[in-house]
Amino acid sequence: MSAPPATAVTTRGLVKRFGTTTAVDGVDLEVRTGELVVLLGLSGSGKSTLLRCLNGLHPVTAGEVVVDTVAVHRARPAELRRLRTDVGFVFQQFNLIGRLTCLENVLIGALGRVRGPRYGLLTWSARHKREALAHLDRIGLADQADQRADTLSGGQQQRVALARTLMQGPRLLLADEPVASLDPENAGTVMDLLLRVCREDRLTVVCTLHQVDLALGWAHRLVGLRGGRKVLDRTADGVSRAEVMEVYRRLETATGMAVA
Ligand SMILES: Nc1ncnc2c1ncn2[C@@H]1O[C@H](COP(=O)(O)OP(=O)(O)OP(=O)(O)O)[C@@H](O)[C@H]1O
After folding, report:
1. Do the domain assignments include residue 216?
2. Where do the ABC transporter domain residues begin and end (predicted)?
3. Ligand 1 centre and the CA of 49: distance in Å?
4. Across residues 127-150, what is the average pLDDT?
5. Does residue 23 have its Cβ closer than 6 Å to ligand 1?
6. DSSP state of 253
7. Residue 55: which domain range?
């Protein structure tokens, strides 16, 4: 891809329905290149669905999604496959292959960039191995390169998962509750790393979180969803906690009952 445009992600009137459930309801969003945007909202407010619409994991029902210069909402399967090598995805559950070493797991991130399959460490070039080691070094786990992934702590596994995603060479990184299963210290370490790749690589990060304090501490911008609609879109600078907590105000139904 050529030089990235200043806007990394644009959605216009994005709607995603599952049967009769409207998960995302007319969301307009602009994410600038190099920004760390956190999506907040109650469980079921549409955060994960919105994230998955950005790389075409969920086809959209209506509206537009543009990532870099790719119109995701009308992309053909081959175009979507190409896009997904430019868009990394970090999941809550790490999804490492436990019996493989950390280095082998990170190398998997490069599969989209090489021709043909790879079976084991010996089939990777020295250049790829050096690159994978450099990513492990960056996340502070170079000395664990030869250790089986399933022997690491949750926090360490999530860092390896991040290194694997960086190995992909993405421009956009989508992270779906990347710290939900981590203790506060490890959660902070992972958020630090996400912010660092934003700053140093000008990588754009869109991340869902449940912890408002982490969002306030690390995000450049906060986007709040309620019932699939965008109800907050503010730079984190100067935003008050009370303002953010409004996102979590329960929806009032016609009968006065509170629902999420
Ligand atoms: N694959 C699916 N099929 C049917 N309904 C879905 C599907 N994925 C999400 N939904 C529904 O869409 C709505 C939004 O869900 P989504 O997972 O995006 O919310 P969320 O804000 O990410 O929630 P959480 O914080 O619990 O992960 C919910 O009502 C959910 O049940």
Report:
1. yes
2. 9-252
3. 6
4. 95
5. yes
6. P
7. 7-94+171-259
